[in-house]
């Protein structure tokens, strides 16, 4: 990788522009395949504090599929309970409700909070462990060409991006904002907290000018790419090259953010809280790791002070933001000695009109959806964009798949972006509105309506609710009509599994060593499609007979598995077969099953990690897989699962 | 730390000789205190494969208290089920029993297996994170002096150890033993697998001679120490300086060890198995991480070939060991292409006659107990030796404790060593003996007796059964007589907690954020004593009243907590108070409890991590702490817990 001394021209399979969460997720996915990838970022350093922090249950499942969720789980603050605070009849705030933060049972992970910089660190470590891809920082794209004639040829490099290396000085944003109050309680001088806020102007053009006038290290490099993915944020340079737009609007609501170690008598400071004061505005409390608490604080004074369009930034300081919080939390006291980060933003929702140029250039993350940060969605939806895209790109580059699967990126992710924006639009207005004094107060917000929106939002916010529409890689039951009498999409075969929604997880026991695993832990993100066979009770002769026949078919020299798998690769390298049988481990011997279910290798013998039992464990209970998945243990079922853990179709055996 | 260019003289609080598991555990403990520690090892490198691998539940609890058990849990192979295989009436081996490997409910961790080199890596990372202690490798102690006149003065340095640095060549053992069989099935040339086996001679004297004749880098350094701990193995140089002995005997039983990726049709190769063949000897199967399996294989041919005393090593090769295994496993086939490590050893049991010289020099690990490896005990008991010793040394060095606590090292750990040796003596004979053909076969081993020993062994092998005797830091109920009518040792106050046995763990909810924690997770190894207050239901006025009085007493300027805590240190730095109240989190507000239970700090506000509830969690059930600990929620109790998680005494409130 020419990270330090770039050649004048390079050819890559994928060029990623932007090394935030979306870009890093993509680089991480691609690190699992042997395809040439480069990732550049105009910033000279990674971030150290502030920014996004919320991680959905679904995001944690994805990070687990890349083998590093344990680092997140350990360092993060776990969000367990939400408290709603409203004004009582005297206008004093009081706790009105407690609700669980993550809906119980929805996932094996609960929502957690951890600073974006740590997530990025874990991605970087994971990328390094699996590849020689390295983030090239302080590298700015300055020119873009697209050769339309090559767009349909997937061996060709239709895109040319010119990049230039910034001087260290230009590439370093002033991001250090931590400050302690002086002993007299006055603020120590602080730097600008708004440099990445949506109240700040885009600095890309300034950086390009700086690069062009910097003769010393400013060597232009021309990168020819099969694919380019713009993960370069709300001011996306890639989006600008394509001429695409973010569509939507802004509100007048301005919110400040403080990451502080609070000194307070407010009793729920270590809970997630939504606090509506009678007339001073609202606060969201997000307890963080390392004793920090993030406060989202509505800034009423600033709203009144603005005169259309962008707000005057100069009036916003940590002291002003704190004062607003103190008014909202009154009569409780709030102060701090240590502030880790602060910013402010104007609430708005926008979504990209187009996510791709001919399935060769893609946009992801903030480049195609921006909204208010309070719902803890931004970083998650951004990472999930490229989690959706990564394996598709890789499979097309490797020749495993037809390029038509790339169209599903826009159909699947634009739907999610629109749902997100709609949710945030409604939610942020409910949050920023004044609580209704009584049922006659029509301008006020009903607190019961707010609570209902909050609870509904929780399901959305888990990321588990995502339900992709029918496509070449989502075969829902309703499609069966179109596809004549093929045995696909039989949703009733597994009533607990929804084609289009990620595979739910329950514990199963490894047949060979009795160890319990969450089924999802077996669905690692390594690019493989999977057939999960649920053969039912194997003690039943007919089920065993059916399993023998299936094994013979799958293992045959002309089986579709061998057809899709390059000759030099192992049997399970493109499509892996997993089995979960009903009933006791003790009644089944692994070696009685056909080889297709536990492939043999001359050097390492049988594969002991493919067959599982839906059985009682010694230490961790019974997963009840058949019951939870709604599969009849007499009839069985098989499920084809995409490399990103979404069931593609259900079939009978 | 003078790791590279040693001064001619140095003064240290603690000098550790030997950087195996016992030495590293001790260095790791001491890294949590600010005391001057050096650790030297005569070997030039850490180990990369082979050696010990079994980790008990109790060891995992300890590693969790140092914050890195997650790395072990993730990489290790989990041992879930044991299968016993015996000859049937025709002499063919068959599976006779399945039993759980770790007794269900005994710990939140089950026994796992992971290569010693990884454990050592985790210790090194942990030590580095908390201190500037660095293992000095290739550094050999060559002279020892003890100034008896200074033995009682704990400010003095009574011990002088001279150390010399070995040349790289001398310090590097030939430990690379991995080999693949050639394509014709013949062994590739392999190096000597026995260099650290008890069949090999002690090489310390050779190394000392090498050091003395190596003029180039051989600068002698004189280290003056308050304490020296010999963690330098079965051939302990420190033990030799003290003139102490290992007492015990050897057997005629020789066993080989193979770490291989097996190619086999033996159905339980991924289970822990104890296999007795009719007349070809026994095999223990230990499935390992990375598809490896460790086989302990009885070598009958070699036994017959020996002529008293040490066995002829030259006859032992991986091929010979494999052939024995094939005979024992017949009619199942066994072969391998890849061998990671191999060795052989002669079964024997020995225990040190003395563990300490005047509580200034201590011996730990293999220096005071050696036995056969099959029970998976050695590395565990060795680490637990220094886990017992570390905090005591640190507290005496720091002046927190009277030196009398150091005497408990020998009383506590010699008892364990003797139990271990007795267990291994019995167990290894049962394992190496020929199975009885029938009840009349008096020379044969009864397989039901073996099974009973195995099951009993499992409790011992978990490390949870350890029960320390009464001492200045273990106040059992029976001691109450001696200590008149003081309210100590009231075992009936908490029938589920045994003074002398490690504090059992159940889940409790953090009062401030509802997060469930295993109580043991709150007992981090940071050197603090802890008072765990179980005040019962705080909704009851009398219980709350009692809590107020207790808080006032503990928080008072003349409380024993402040008396034991240096003035400049925080209130909880030597003795920490944790509270677990009965009943609902929702009925209690943290700030209604006295400050002693949630200390205030000017810079960071209240402490939200001291008070817990025995309540239902949203996602992880109900820990039933009062019920499990056998504490009456009307009466309550308080438990003083040592820094190593052992309850010191129970009291009423």
From TrEMBL, chains A, B:
Domain of life, per the record? Eukaryota
Give me the ranges of the annotated region Disordered.
Answer: 167-191
Q: Which InterPro entries match?
A: FAD-bd, FAD/NAD-bd_sf, Phe_hydrox_C_dim_dom, PHOX_C_sf, RIFMO-like, Thioredoxin-like_sf
Which GO MF terms are attached to this record? FAD binding; oxidoreductase activity, acting on paired donors, with incorporation or reduction of molecular oxygen, NAD(P)H as one donor, and incorporation of one atom of oxygen
The coiled-coil regions, if any, are none
In this chain the FAD-binding domain maps to 12-423
Name the family the entry cites.
Answer: Belongs to the PheA/TfdB FAD monooxygenase family.
Q: Write one Pfam family the protein is assigned to.
A: FAD_binding_3
Organism source for this protein? Answer: Penicillium antarcticum
**Keyword Flavoprotein on entry:** yes
Please name the Gene3D superfamilies in this protein's record: 3.40.30.20, D-Amino Acid Oxidase, subunit A, domain 2, FAD/NAD(P)-binding domain
Domain Phenol hydroxylase-like C-terminal dimerisation, chain residue ranges per copy: 466-646
This chain's protein is named FAD-binding domain-containing protein
């Amino acid at each position: 990788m020419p990270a330090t001394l770039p050649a004048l021209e390079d050819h890559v399979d994928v060029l990623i522009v932007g090394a935030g969460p979306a870009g890093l997720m993509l680089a991480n996915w691609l690190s699992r395949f042997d395809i040439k990838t480069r990732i550049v970022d105009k910033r000279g350093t990674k971030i150290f504090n502030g920014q996004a922090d919320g991680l959905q249950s679904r995001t944690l499942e994805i990070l687990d599929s890349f083998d590093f969720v344990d680092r997140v789980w350990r360092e993060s603050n776990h969000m367990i309970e939400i408290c709603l605070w409203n004004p009582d009849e005297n206008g004093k705030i009081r706790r009105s409700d407690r609700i669980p933060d993550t809906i119980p049972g929805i996932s094996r992970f609960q929502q957690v909070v951890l600073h974006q910089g740590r997530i990025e660190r874990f991605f970087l470590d994971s990328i390094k462990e699996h590849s020689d891809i390295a983030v090239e920082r302080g590298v700015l794209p300055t020119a873009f060409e697209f050769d339309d004639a090559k767009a349909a040829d997937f061996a060709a490099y239709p895109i040319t991006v010119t990049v230039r290396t910034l001087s260290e000085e230009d590439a370093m944003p002033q991001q250090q904002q931590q400050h302690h109050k002086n002993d007299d309680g006055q603020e120590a001088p602080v730097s600008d907290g708004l440099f990445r806020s949506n109240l700040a102007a885009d600095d890309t053009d300034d950086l390009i000018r700086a690069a062009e006038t910097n003769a010393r290290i400013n060597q232009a490099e021309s990168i020819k790419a099969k694919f380019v993915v713009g993960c370069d944020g709300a001011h996306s340079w890639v989006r600008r090259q394509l001429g695409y737009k973010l569509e939507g609007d802004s509100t007048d609501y301005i919110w400040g953010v403080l990451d502080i170690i609070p000194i307070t008598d407010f009793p729920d400071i270590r809970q997630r809280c939504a606090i509506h004061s009678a007339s001073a505005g609202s606060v969201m409390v997000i307890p963080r790791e390392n004793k920090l608490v993030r406060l989202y604080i509505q800034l009423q004074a600033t709203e009144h002070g603005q005169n259309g369009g962008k707000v005057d930034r100069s009036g916003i300081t940590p002291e002003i933001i704190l004062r607003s919080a103190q008014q909202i939390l009154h009569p409780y006291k709030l102060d701090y000695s240590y502030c880790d980060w602060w910013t402010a933003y104007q609430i708005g929702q926008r979504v990209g009109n187009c996510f791709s140029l001919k399935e060769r250039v893609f946009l992801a993350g903030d480049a195609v959806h921006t909204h208010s940060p309070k719902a803890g969605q931004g970083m998650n939806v951004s990472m999930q964009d490229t989690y959706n895209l990564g394996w598709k790109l890789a499979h097309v580059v490797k020749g495993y798949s037809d390029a038509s699967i790339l169209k599903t990126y826009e159909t699947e992710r634009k739907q999610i972006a629109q749902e997100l924006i709609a949710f945030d639009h409604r939610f942020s207005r409910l949050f920023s509105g004044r609580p209704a004094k009584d049922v006659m107060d029509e301008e006020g917000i009903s607190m019961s309506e707010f609570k209902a929106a909050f609870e509904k939002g929780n399901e959305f916010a888990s990321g588990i609710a995502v339900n992709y529409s029918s496509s070449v890689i989502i075969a829902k039951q309703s499609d069966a009509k179109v596809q004549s009498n093929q045995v696909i999409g039989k949703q009733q075969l597994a009533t607990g599994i929804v084609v289009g929604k990620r595979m739910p997880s329950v514990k199963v026991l490894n047949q060979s060593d009795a160890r319990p695993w969450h089924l999802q832990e077996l669905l690692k993100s390594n690019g493989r499609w999977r057939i999960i066979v649920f053969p039912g009770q194997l003690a039943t002769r007919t089920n065993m007979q059916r399993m023998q026949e299936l094994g013979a078919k799958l293992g045959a020299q002309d089986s579709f598995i061998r057809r899709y798998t390059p000759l030099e690769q192992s049997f399970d390298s493109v499509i892996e077969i997993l089995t979960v049988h009903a009933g006791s481990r003790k009644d089944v011997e692994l070696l009685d099953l056909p080889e297709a279910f536990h492939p043999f290798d001359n050097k390492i013998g049988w594969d002991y990690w493919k067959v599982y039992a839906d059985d009682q464990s010694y230490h961790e209970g019974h997963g009840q897989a058949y019951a939870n998945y709604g599969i009849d243990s007499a009839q069985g079922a098989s499920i084809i699962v995409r490399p990103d853990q979404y069931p593609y179709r259900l079939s009978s055996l």
